[in-house]
Model the fold of this input.
Amino acid sequence: MVKHGVNLILEINLDNNKILRLVEGDITERNVDVIVNAANSYLKHGGGVAAAIVRKGGAVIQDESDMIITAGGLVPVGSAVITTAGRLPCKAIIHTVGLSIRKRLYKYFDASDKFWDIWLS
Done:
């Protein structure tokens, strides 16, 4: 369904007169309160969506992330930090740290499995 000019996947009316919307599109172009970025513990935004966020929002996002690491060390898995949004139309970015894909898949494959040869090459 197209609503508000984007492909609306899900909409939930919250108790506090707020609406939570899941939409398909370019996250860097959304005029919302915050966007949520899947981050690594080092807050290095070098690839994927994180790189697109820094590319469009500006170096200030990576600079603030670097300051967070300098001040407090690595961000633990399951934790989140917040930075400003730079030139993005949103107000802030929440960087959430989860397990890497390698750590999530490791339990399914033996270290000698050909999958790892492919993954690492």
About this structure: The longest strand covers residues 6-13. Residues 27-113 form a domain with the Leucine Aminopeptidase, subunit E; domain 1 fold (CATH 3.40.220.10). The two ends are 41 Å apart (CA to CA). The chain has four helices and six strands.
